[in-house]
Amino acid sequence: MKKFTQARIYRQHDEVNEILVDRGVIRQIGPHLPGADEEIDLQGRLVVPPYVDAHLHLDYVYTGGKAGARNTSGTLFEGIARWHDVKKTQTLEDARERALRGIQEEVSRGFSSSAPISTCAIPT
To answer: Are 75 and 69 in contact (CB under 8 A)?
Structure first.
């Protein structure tokens, strides 16, 4: 068991709290928690949930490796511009194959929900 002390919890960071973790699972958050095998003083640092972007756009999954589609700057603006060029040449079958590959990869790693695919990005 680990106890993190002097933690400022995201959206509650006016107060310092403690976090009790057992085998990687948060068991308790609050002031004056019981002792633990290991105590780590966070010295007032802010604790935030991990960033998890649990969605993907199946109509353009795996398009970044195509010629002219690479987003070299890594910015959203370049990504949108590259997607505009890619969608001009993709076919329904191409989009379907990439979507199925994306679904298979997501399912192999576990997922919690899905939503219908939009056909607005597929040329008619």
So the answer is: no
What pLDDT, on the 0 to 100 scale, is given for residue 36? 96
Burial-class residue 19 by CB neighbours within 10 Å (0-12, 13-18, 19+). buried
Closest CA to 1 of 17, 26, 14, 9: 26
Q: Provide the β-strand partners of residue 8.
A: 16, 46
Length of the chain: 124
Residues 26-73 pLDDT 10s:
999 999 999 999 999 999 998 887 766 566 777 778 887 777 677 788
Rg over CA atoms, the chain: 22
Q: What is the pTM of this model?
A: 0.45
Q: Beta 25-30 vs 38-41: how paired, if at all?
A: unpaired
Which residue carries 């195509």 as its tokens?
66
How far apart are alpha carbons 12 and 49 in whole angstroms? 12
